[in-house]
Amino acid sequence: MAAKPDRKTALRVLGTLEETYPDAHCALNYSNPLELLVATILSAQCTDVRVNQVTEGLFRRYPDAAAYAGADLSALEEEIRSTGFFRNKARNLVACGAALLERHGGEIPRTLEALTALPGVGRKTANVVLGNAFGLAEGLVVDTHVKRIAGRLGWTRHSDPERIERDLCALFPREKWTQASHVLIFHGRQICKAPTPLCTLCPVLSDCPRIGVTRSR
DNA sequence: ATCCCGAGGG
DNA sequence: CCCTCTGGAT
């Protein structure tokens, strides 16, 4: 049996990560909820740097939900082509604009349920928007980095992101969820990488179950 | 070849 | 749980 995650240890780890990465923040740094939503939709399998480049011009041409709803699909595809998965993303952005108009008067809804009901918006994107645009996080942002770290630290034994999120929510108080997402993602990108973590540089190595199991450099 | 702050469908 | 969708950087 895997030892169940120790809440006290987990909180200590999180505290250390917060001290180590005081500037950890959302890589898609948009206070406008629509911009954040669009940027996050575009971020699938794409670097945040490229998303920021692409969205820079995009927001001028598509300032609101109506602009996406009425967009020319193939033109939008071309504009976001370099972010990958561009056909899915363009179709979703247009459908999303229409859904925002029909269901929410062109505004961005503020609940997980309403956000995930939008085309192309899953749990991860919804949590990013809720936490960073509204300060109303209903959970943690579980991306590939958070998945990996939660597994390595023994915080979860699940692989399904929804169940991982449940485990992490149980581990940390609600007011820490958004910042926890940021430091975990930052740590995952800089240190606890896949497949080779830079353990010699890791600030929470002494609390990591992988000591003695995994070699690193 | 492998990775990038995923979503939706089988 | 699996698979597909896609381009760009390293």
What does this protein look like?
By secondary structure, this protein is an all-alpha fold. The chain has two domains: 7-25 and 140-207, Orthogonal Bundle (Endonuclease Iii, domain 2), CATH 1.10.1670; 33-134, Orthogonal Bundle (Endonuclease III, domain 1), CATH 1.10.340.30. It is 56% helix and 0% strand. It has helices at 7-20, 33-42, 48-61, 65-69, 73-80, 86-104, 112-116, 123-134, 144-152, 161-171, 177-190. Helix 2 crosses helix 3 (48-61), helix 5 packs across helix 6 (86-104) and helix 9 crosses helix 11 (177-190). It is elongated. The chain starts with 6 loop residues before the first helix and ends in a 27-residue tail after the last helix. The structure holds a DNA duplex (10 and 10 nucleotides).
Total helices: the number is 11
User: What is the average per-residue confidence, as pLDDT, rounded to a whole number?
Assistant: 92
Structural category: mainly alpha
CATH superfamily of the largest domain: Hypothetical protein, domain 2
Which architecture of the largest domain would the CATH scheme give at its second level? Orthogonal Bundle
What is the overall silhouette?
elongated
CATH level-1 class of the largest domain: Mainly Alpha
Give the N-terminus to C-terminus distance in angstroms. 29 Å
Beta strand %: under 5%
Helix content: 55-70%
CATH topology category name of the largest domain: Endonuclease III, domain 1
Tally of discrete structural domains: 2
Element string (H = helix, E = strand): HHHHHHHHHHH
Number of strands: 0
Q: Unreliable segments (pLDDT under 50, ≥5 consecutive)?
A: none
Main sheet specs: none
Rg result: 18 Å
